[in-house]
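Colleagues,

Please find the record for the three-part complex below.
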Amino acid sequence: MSSSEGFDEIEYRVGNFAPVLRTPLDSPYEISNELFAALRHVLHDVGGQPDLPQPYREKVEEEWEMNAYVTCECLGWRGVWNSEERRRAENDLGATLYFGLPYYARWATVAAKVLINTGQITPDELSAKIDEVRARLEKKSA
Amino acid sequence: MNRTFGIGDRVTVKNATSMFHTRTQAYTRGKTGVVVEFRPDWVIPEDEAWGRDTPERGGREEPFYVVRFKQKDLWPNYTGFDVDTLETEVAQRWLDPAKENAK
Amino acid sequence: MTRTHDHDHDAHAAIQSSSGVNEFEVLEQAVRELAIEKGLFSAEDHRRFSEWAESIGPSGGSKLVAKAWVDPEFNARLLADGTEACKEVGIDWLDPTGVGTPSDYTYFYVLENTPTVHNVIVCTLCSCYPRPVLGMSPDWYRTPHYRRRLVRWPREVLAEFGLHFGPDVEVRVHDSNQKSRFMVMPMRPDGTEGWTEEQLAAIVTRDTMIGVAQPKADWTATSSPSAG
């Protein structure tokens, strides 16, 4: 997380995922069986949902995207997980991240999570490594 | 496991409860199509997604089928033409024989 | 404004934070380094798989189609057993691990277009794609709007790509929702009589093998016909 932004700037963005102007349905709950079913819908099952045409854009994979893809495949290759576990993990991120993150960022995120979930690394190790890598890359780009 | 359906059989996709993960699409539930091809016996994704990806790990292998639907049977007010179709793959557990009065 | 296929091949600019470092890159690298440190896979594994990922591309699929167009017996073998037939053009679905890739599996099927059936592929649930024969998937193939719309409004989506079919052509959508991986074999266009396999492969573009384009005798993979 960047330290250059103030608390309010960051929290405004985060808080906006549950906007101030919203109709709270969860407490006391006013959720019908139909809405509950919709909330429980397996997220990746999007076939037939309405959407608008968008330009069909091309994008060459950036280095981090190829690396994220290869890392996930290597984790599968060496038995840490299988690709269906990866796909479920992406759904388990929830709608905001599932539809909000770039495709390969979902891959990188769930790869990090599976390492913690399966006890291969601790959360502290992940945080420390992120800080270390960031510092290294910042130095390189300075 | 024995294959219960043959090529040409009309089948209806079950609207079974599927918590947390499935690869049987909502748009196929309750819809009737025809088996056009066999696929191998595969571990079902509902087991694989939880790490039970081999029989030794508790993953259940089942025959899979390619089911072809008429698009006008899948979608209300389908905007294409009557000839249009959609094929997708379905595990045996998700299929019932089509009812006599199904389209 | 007409919706046409956007041939924008310029790389989308990477998002930079104020420090000039991309946080996605930070996360990716952190995960990779930890995985290697913990012995989950080796740096050599990552290098070998990366090499394979760099080596795959649509030319593999183009070779299959071109060979099938000139050789009816290969055509039959390709349609009967896609995975096996790939070996004849140097593609082994067991590469690079020896047992296949975790995401692509080893069940490859080729879908032959005919004058009365046009095939097109999507994976509504994620974005399953036949990487060994076509390389990495296009960005648009993975978007929610393609995944949502192609299965239900296929003729609209195809029209946005410039394809139109009359009511006598069955548009057959394949939602690759399990372990199978698909590629479309487009029909050989008129005007290609006597062409070599190399010449034919050059007009079989990636999009023709997904099913959102058709090969044209004056198209190649790198230049569109002169249309202004």
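Strands of chain B lie at 10-13, 32-43, 61-70, 85-91, 95-97.

Comments are welcome before we finalize the supplementary table.
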